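Fold sample X.
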Amino acid sequence: MASLTSPTLLAPPAAVGMRRVTVLTIDGGGIRGIIPGTILAFLEKKLQELDGADARLADYFDYIAGTSTGGLITAMLAAPGKDKRPLFSAEKVNEFYMENGPRIFPQRYK
């Protein structure tokens, strides 16, 4: 058994017969959620250029998780619509923040 002080090299999942798991995590930060929203919209646009207009970030990750405002973004990216496809595109995240951000994240100090 390896000790806690000596590093143990692990083989990549494919080398031991396990499937690779992809995880997208999104940090919190209030109205600053517009920053990951912008990055995710760019990424989704590039994926759509490769795989078609219906491509959504949820198609590329096994798990999507977030804290605080990252959790809100996660819900938007992963919530299924009637067709069982993601209800919102990543592009809609920033539209949501621009429209609803001031009500959700009011300024505390003026």
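Fold sample Y, listed below.
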Amino acid sequence: SESVKRFIERFKADGEDFIEGLRKAVSANMYWHIEEILRYTDLYSTEAVSRALRESIEMGAYHKNSVKRLLEGKTLNPTPIVAINGLPIIPAITIKRPLSRYRVHTGEVLR
């Protein structure tokens, strides 16, 4: 399949090893996992995704969500701004911020 070829071209030996494990782990929706992981390179460097693949292989965790969890907290690529009909389209990103970053004020009631 074209997805498998692109995955191996991008991630080399790590890609081949991951696909081998993925075939055994998920079989039916393997191509969906491959496409999702390839999309991670829109947000993270190929090197970062490749390292996450390697860690997943070492853990025996052949799932796109395992790779995604390993990437959380890594440096994101600059977000590209795409224009369609002259309007900027900025891809959505999820920002996770711990609630401990917010200060709680007590004793004051706003009326």
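Sample Y note: Residues 54 and 60 are 10 Å apart (CA to CA).
Also: The chain has a mean pLDDT of 86.
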